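Ticket #4471: structure output looks truncated?

Reporter: J.K.
Steps to reproduce: submitted the chain below (290 residues) through the standard prediction queue, then opened the result file.
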Amino acid sequence: MGASDSAQHQPKSNPELDKPWRKFDWGQREALKEKLENFSPSDPNVKEIKILVAGQVGAGKSSFINSIESVFQGRICSRALVSSSAVGHSFTQKLKGFTIRSGRKTLPFVFKDVMGLEPEALAGSQPEEIINAVFGHVKDGYKFNQGQALTSKDQHYISDPTLSDQAFCLVYVIDGNTVQFTDDKLVDKLKIIPQRIGDQRIPQVVIMTKVDEVCPLVRNDLRKIYNSKKIKEKMEMCSTKTGVPLSNIFPVKNYHEETDTDDDIDVLILKALDQIVQIADDRLLDFESY
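Returned output as attached by the reporter:
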């Protein structure tokens, strides 16, 4: 028997685990939605929890923000401009805060969208600008300058930010398709940020997108997401590259080509959002003890 015949008779590896490696309740959509609609920050002086969203170009950073609002509105929303990795550059040029609405009610958390990260030293958003935005030094409307970071002399610089100006969680959005090919220069950019914000213990979360493209098993049935060996491997790669613990990494499918919302897509997004909001509020509580 030749080598090719032997290869043909090799049993194919099963892409599916016998049982989910992460416990997940697919019936919690309404409970999570209601919980988030009734959320209020632990500090009465802070009306909104600010969450900064960073990520590689085309990973789905702005789409994630749009998808969150889509869940609460029950229809596909597209307030944040969306780019494609094929475009090669970020559509987001200015720092902008996006509130999330449920019907006519505005929820008490705001997502700050920054310019996409790129591997080249002077391309895309710079770590220094993301760090400034986390600490509340950057006003909405600031146009990212790829050649020079924001300085204290700029009109968009807040020299003495209040607690309400600061972000209490940093969310990285990473394309699950490309995580193993992520350029080392981009990884270096990502690692600078936690080194600089580490003293303030700002929590970090990874949202791993495009799970349906990563794994055919999940493309056919989103509920197989935690049974998928490939999704688990990709999440472990995310953890290794970013330093974010696996417990703070959430695989999601953003709304992209859909024209209607879907309960399974919704519940993955809601669970990720609930964790983000809770750990951000925990950080706010820590500030009160200083």
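Triage note (M.O.): checked the attachment and the full token line is present. Residues 85-89, 119-124 have pLDDT under 50 and may be disordered.
Status: closed, working as intended.
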